[in-house]
Amino acid sequence: MSDSYKYVVRGAKMECSCGSHKRKINLPVSHGSYVNKKPMMNEEDNKVDKNISYFGICDSPQNPNNETIYLVHEVNGSTISGKKCCPQIFEKWDNTKENTKVEGKSALTTKSQLICAYEGIITFVDDGQQEE
Prior knowledge:
This protein is mostly beta strands. It is built from no helices and eleven strands. It has one domain.
């Protein structure tokens, strides 16, 4: 891992390579480690509906969901439609900081990524450390 990474905290923004919308990672209960007074995340913070929500419309042909949803495009404000994202996560986050432990597990950084069973690659857009 190069030196150009930052630790990820609750509220960091993520994107999926197959999804239309960015989302924030959630952490219902802190692990007890903090950066800038914000709770740090670890490699096992990969649970759908607990840490990871849906990324809008999914363009993966592997997505079996037949539900069509309509959303406002994040950039231009137009209405877009397609299959609802329904992430399926079976692995821990990759590219974690193994020598930094958060509640005994490797810390997440802006270089970490998560693979969805429908071929999407979830990555961090920011570290969540800054105030919005």
